[in-house]
Amino acid sequence: MTARHNHAAGTLTRIHVSSDLLKGNFLDDPHVRAIDVWVPHGHDGSGLPLLVDLAGYTGSGLSHTNWKNFGENVPERLDRLAGSGALKPCVVAFPDCFTRLGGNQYVNSSVMGPWEDILIEEFVPAVEAQFGCGGVGRRGVFGKSSGGFGAIYHALKHADFWAAAACHSGDMGFELCYARDFPSALRAIAKAGSIKAFMEKLEANPKPSGGEIHVLMTLAMAATYDPDASQPYGVRLPVDLETCERDEALWANWLSFDPLTLVETHHANLNALKGLFIDCGDIDQYDLVYGARRLHRRLKALGVEHTYEEFPDTHSGIDYRMDVSLPFLVDRLLA
């Protein structure tokens, strides 16, 4: 637990952005989205670098600004870091990117929505316009889990937009972190009768179980990496629903998004970054540490400058790692 502190609080402002790119989306998700924006005490945001927080699956930027028991929410963490001098002045944005399928990977999908473009073309410009922060060379992106995937994906694809990135326990090594969930997803689908029936039951359930949410995550990944708008909820799985045999053509669509695949064709983009931070718990229960180690090893071989750390913990309850990554990002953006 982190003790409460008495550092001066920054300002937390909620703005709303009407996304033209999200209007009429396949999942009928709302196109007007809230973004909480933290500005440090004594500043109005003008001229400061901008960090954007990408939430993990089942999360939202708004959940990161809520009150938290036995510790700090992220704005309180920022107040402490800034008040102690560990974090130089910056603006931090917390966008709500939640979807009907329970989360977001922050890539463009015909089913989930064009979230890659929404962030770059709508959300970040809206924050920068209102607060006078960020701009070319002064934008950083960070996140954990699905948000960590989003951060490393955007670093690989959009180093001309983002100048620094931090990936905490990000999804990578898809064969290890996703493929193992297909059998349990198939059992749940078979029990319900179909993907459509599973989703209808889930959405009608006032208290879905953790197992059901985990199955939903598999469906969300399918709608993200290999969307099929002709199917109910836009979901098709890359396996035979009866035998779990892999359809290699469909699975290849998933793998095209794996950072371990993208690094081979987009690693040169990472050299344009001012800073790249990657970490993972050494006993991550989703085995993401093995993908992180593979990416680290490949980046070293390719000569890509980055900071890689492992820490003695799991995938859960690791917000304290922001004490390391956020000062790193701001220092690099200001360098």
Please specify the SSE layout and strand pairing.
Layout: E1 11-18, E2 32-39, E3 50-54, H1 61-64, H2 74-84, E4 91-95, E5 108-109, E6 113-114, H3 115-131, E7 139-144, H4 146-157, E8 164-168, H5 174-177, H6 182-192, H7 195-204, H8 210-225, H9 248-255, H10 259-270, E9 275-281, H11 288-302, E10 307-311, H12 322-334
Helix pairs in contact: 4-10, 6-7, 6-8, 10-11
Largest sheet: 8 strands, mixed
Shape: globular
What proportion strand?
15-25%
Rg estimate, integer Å:
19 Å
Query: Could you give the distance between the termini?
Result: 33 Å
Q: What is the tally of helical segments?
A: 12
CATH class of the largest domain: Alpha Beta
Annotated CATH architecture of the largest domain: 3-Layer(aba) Sandwich
Descriptors for this entry?
single chain, 335 residues, alpha/beta, Rossmann fold, 8-stranded mixed β-sheet, two-stranded antiparallel sheet, 10 strands
